[in-house]
From TrEMBL:
Radical SAM core domain boundaries: 173-429
InterPro entries on file: Elp3/MiaA/NifB-like_rSAM, rSAM, rSAM_horseshoe, rSAM_sf
Cross-referenced CDD domains: Radical_SAM (cd01335)
Stated name of the protein: Radical SAM core domain-containing protein
Organism, as annotated: hydrocarbon metagenome
GO molecular function: catalytic activity; iron-sulfur cluster binding
Amino acid sequence: MNSEAVIIDGYVDEPACLGVPPYISPYIRSVAGVLVEHGHAPRYLTIDRLRDDTRLIGSLSRASIVVMIAGVTVPGSYIGGKPATLTEIQQIGVQAKAPTTAIGGPIAFGYAPQGGRKAIRQAIAGFDVTLRGPPAAALDSYLRGGSAAGSHDYAKLDRWSILGSPIIAQHPAFPFVVCELETASGCPRAAVGGCSFCTEPLYGLPRYRTVEGIAGEVGALYRNGARHFRLGRQPDLLAYGTGGRAEFPKPRPDLIEALFASVREAAPDLLTLHIDNINPGTIARHEEASRAALEAIVSGHTPGDVAAFGMETADPAVVSANNLKALPEDVFRAIEITNEVGGRRREGIPELLPGLNFVLGLAGETWQTYALNEAFLERVLKSGLLVRRVNIRQLMPFEGTPAYENNTLGLHGARYRTFKEHVRKHFDRPMLERVFPRGAVLRHLVVEISGSTSFARQLGSYPILAGIPLSLPVRTVLDAVVVDWGMRSVTALPCPVDINGLPVSALRRIPGIGKKRAAAIAAKRPFPDREAFSAAVGSTPIDPLLVFRPPGAPSP
């Protein structure tokens, strides 16, 4: 290593890739591998780190090359970090005085500040090079004296991913980092255009990594301290390894089973192994094979997992107008099958549940569309089925997709807002109570925000936010038991629940105690055992998780 290179993570969020903390995208690691292969020592900085200490921008002049990865094509709400804005990206490009500066990632498709706006494709001011295509392949081509454009070559990506795996130790959240793993790129429906709004078909038809290639990367990440993984960089995990040109390929459960077994073998003490995208249209068209594939996932993953369904709408007219992948009945059947396979619980937490994504502003949308969306969710509730979460976003159309010119942006803004409010009030809260009942134990929560109420999440796919009525240091790791619910979060207490040590503000959160009784019960402490506590309070849903340590006794 004879020269320093800097990778700036502006964070990415695409239909098939998440790289916002606590996630680290595969782009970062493969780019690091390219830099290592070309004799550079890569240093990793996040956009949040640069925001906190702008002096770091001046240090970029000492690097021989600066590579920034950025771009959001499916905007969301984030707790762990805020993706770089176009203004910030351009400021970095102008102020970085390194001999070479390069920008890559989904930002190459265009930029919009939020959903509901068209993403404009433009040159990024200040950067010498825009990396087109897979960033690592494009960077390698450029450093070899070729063009700054690359194509998928998984044999090379496997090598670069292993070489770049040590970069994770430089992540500010390490070791509480989820490594997003690429299993495929491209869309099986690209030949028929794909969904009107999606950027994944722009990568072409699917290319699949080998089981051996993925396992090799996992092993390298594991040796460098990674314990949290998600098979997330693909549009439909059920299609993994299927090959061919079928629009809805028939799943191969044997390959999915082999994939999970190989990841487990490469990382024997992993703490998280989750998934992301599942096409509900695949499940509806291949029920038997999909069921077997889902069972293979449940056998190999860790619980609390989420299969993200790109439903987009419950309006058949909008499905047709936008070439979407599943009609409402297809989605409902996929929810049923996923519940049958993944609805069983481990310590009160379901193994694998569907998550629903709605996109508003698509072509053909009317006010009736929103009523159909609400009716669909009401049907799910009444059926007793479980859904982990509902994501609602406004369309952000990109050049090269049909939705760029054909959409209904700006026509139903008021109805969008009332729909979102309706879902939060009438669906999210009752569904949370169903998915996370009182007494459910959330393992390995990591505190992200400290305060009189601290906020913590597990590492994994769409983790539930837990408010803990105690002041806990950031990065504290704990188990907690669910005692109450908000709109999109739960209230939880450290588990086991130390009755004699809890402050009154936390004691009152125990079901059956409440604010009025908490002070009176606190005055009777210490309780020697559960029997004495039950005599004063009665039974609670979390009785098996209560402990009665003597005052001043250290926690185990």
